[in-house]
Every structure is written in structure tokens, then in C-alpha cells.
Amino acid sequence: MGRMGNFNANDLKKFQKELEKLNKHTDAFLQACTKELAARLLEKVKKRTPVGDYSGDSYTCKTGQVHKGHRVKGKVGGWLRRDWSVGEIRNEGGVYKIDLINSKEYAPYVEYGHRTPDHKGWVPGHFMMTITEKELEKENQKVLEKKLEKLLRSALH
């Protein structure tokens, strides 16, 4: 029969107290994780958001459609990209949620595509939010594991 070795109950009690301390900070930790993931999503979706090009004899509008022979003087692109923002964190049934917001009325048309003004064609969507969200889902676990490891190391040492 094998032997268990030395065991100190005081160490176990100390470990239990450290875990109780950690439990008190769970909400703050989860909010910090949510904020970090939202910040990463915001950064990536901004980079992926197209900007209208109004230089030259034609221009590409926010929706990706090229307009030939139209010069738009004084028009500057980038409003859609600049309008991205992050909402407030909320806890809904133990799930932390945060909204990524773009209040430009044409944002869904750029995201998903739309018919041309004459209704005879289709301008494809850029799916900047959809693609970015899927890309971030692949990174989420690694980011969260790193943050959790850092929290555990600081609490248990």
C-alpha cells in the first residue's frame, strides 16, 4: 500500500482563504475580460471598415459602389470608420455583454450589401463586423487563459 507523504491542513486552509478572496473579485475580473475583448474587437473592426475615396474623376462611396464621372468636392471619407464605439458592460443572467455600436444609418448596408439605387444591381457587403467577430472568437480563449493565469499567479503567491 502506498504512502501519502506529508500533509499540512494549515496550507489547505490558507489556500481556501485565497480562493475566497479571488471569488470576491470575480465580477471585476469578468468585466475586465469583457472590456479587453471589446477593445480588441473595436480595433480590428475599425481597420476592416472601408473608407470612401472621393479623389479623381470617380469615387468609391461608403457602400463600395464606384461612381464614374462624379467629382465630389470637399467630401472626405472615413465617417463610418470613425463612428464605431463600445457601449456599457451589462450582466445578463451571468453572461457579460457589451455592444459595439455604429450609429451611421448606412452601416448595415456596408456590412451586408444593398441594391443599387436603380434596383438593377447589387453592391456586395464588406462584412467587417461579421468577419472580425469570427476572427476574435478564435483568439478569445487564449486571451482569457492569459488573464486568468495572471490573476491566479498574483493571488496564490
End-to-end Cα distance, whole Å, is 34 Å
Number of helices: 5
- Unreliable segments of 5+ consecutive residues: none
Let me know the average pLDDT: 83
- Secondary-structure element order, N to C: HHEEHEEEEHEEH
**Oligomer type:** single chain
Name the strands of the widest sheet in spatial order.
1-2
- Helix fraction, binned, reads 40-55%
Structural class: alpha+beta
| Beta-strand residue fraction | 15-25%
Shape: elongated
Task: Indicate the radius of gyration in whole angstroms.
Answer: 25 Å
According to DSSP, the number of beta strands is: 8
Can you summarize the main beta sheet? 2 strands, antiparallel
Provide structural commentary.
With 157 residues, the chain is of the alpha+beta class. It has a domain at 16-50 and 86-156. It has helices at residues 9-24, 26-48, 79-82, 107-112, 128-156; strands spanning 58-60, 66-68, 84-86, 90-92, 95-97, 100-102, 113-115, 122-124. The strands form four sheets. A two-stranded antiparallel ribbon has the order 1-2. It has a two-stranded antiparallel sheet with strand order 3-6. It has a two-stranded antiparallel ribbon with strand order 4-5. Helix 2 (26-48) runs antiparallel to helix 5. The mean pLDDT is 83.
